[in-house]
Amino acid sequence: MSDTPDTRTLPHAMSPQSSSSSSASSASPGRSFVPALAALPGSAWVLLLLVVVFGLFSEGFLSVANLLNVGTQSTILLLIALPMTLIIMTEGLDLSIGAVLTLCGVVLATVVIGTGSVSLALAAALGVGVAFGLLNGGLVAWLGIPPFVATLGTLGVAQGLALVMTDGQSVVGIGDTIPEIYAGAWLGIPIPLWIAAICYGLFHWLLYRTRFGAYVFALGGNREALKFAGIRVNRYLIAVYALGGLMAGLAALLLTARMNAGHPSAAIGLEFDAIAAVAVGGTTFDRGNGWLPGTLLGVLAVGVLRNGLNLLGVPSAVQVAAIGLLVLVVLLIESYKTKEKA
Fold this sequence. Notes:
Elements: H1 21-26, H2 29-38, H3 42-57, H4 64-89, H5 97-115, H6 118-141, H7 147-166, H8 177-183, E1 185-186, E2 189-190, H9 191-209, H10 211-221, H11 223-228, H12 233-259, H13 270-280, H14 292-311, H15 316-341
Antiparallel strand pairs: 1-2
């Protein structure tokens, strides 16, 4: 099997060498500009619209400080949206990733208080995340339990463990080292943005430049072909879920640093934002059709929406509804564009 996925499964990531390239090259710049705009994914249009609207109606939204704040706050969501993209591409789902992130944060805070070692605490958090990822993958791949049901069960387990470990209270007194990771900067750019950029680059390489990425596409698009080729499908499916757990552990470092504590319900519900970002980005729940740059756009759209609504003083409950509406709007745009092409 090819080391790179079939670009025909990526409507937004296709090579520019298409059948219309010759006519586009001969057209005038003015005429080619409109089709180029029409080719933009719905997530890009919505992100642009949100920036314009909040820039007009929310004072200070377009300031450099606030835009950096939007990016920094979006890093935690990006870290779990990246593996969620791969999971959804395999026709799976991980409802537990928010609860696992929360548990990893509690473990991280508890270990760093008990040992004083940030490295050991991070290793423990990553280990807990991978363990839950392997559990999720095993339930789905080996036992054949539907991903929705399997991860709903592990969601309850992770959330319950976090509550038991903390007795429902925040784990405080983690020192100054971890909070400095979130508050610090390098070359004028916040450290969380550097971490997110590195993770995105690694995932982009993994999905589009490796055999593992090709198998991820095939797991959702043509799983039977993988089986006929002698590929151990279950092994790769479990690896995808384990990757999600690993990223939950890493995201727990940023979340704990941001809150200066490990809280037993800090990331509950964050899986909804991650799924929304992936859906807004154009990844579908069937046929292995996914687009990682779209997930980045989706994360930014969700981050801009939450930030803008916060600046306008909109209650958090309304923000959840707004994110749901955002998903519907993007899906409607994509549906309209598909019908126009047909």
